[in-house]
Design goal:
Number of helices: 1
Radius of gyration: 17 Å
Order of helices and strands: HEEE
Largest sheet: 3 strands, antiparallel
Helix content: under 10%
Strand order of the largest sheet: 1-2-3
Strand content: 35-45%
Length: 74
């Protein structure tokens, strides 16, 4: 989600208002700065775990995607 928060909802972290706006999105898009990857890890009670990572290239273009599944046993 690259939706920018409204100014009233932004925190005051000490960076400029321009940066606060940019960084308020879950997916950051900018010519010089942005989201590099997104990762999801899912584990069930049986110990089965899946790991998925999507890489992003400059311009927020999707790059490689890596998917792994494994089972943890005791």
């Amino acid at each position: 989600d690259d939706t920018i928060a409204v100014d009233a909802a932004l925190p005051r972290t000490g960076v400029s208002l321009v940066w606060e706006r940019l960084l308020s999105a879950a997916f950051v898009r900018s010519p010089d700065y942005g989201t590099r990857s997104a990762t999801v890890v899912i584990a069930d009670r049986a110990g089965r775990t899946s790991f998925s990572e999507q890489e992003y290239l400059p311009g927020a273009q999707p790059g490689a995607r890596r998917d792994f599944e494994f089972c943890l046993t005791r």
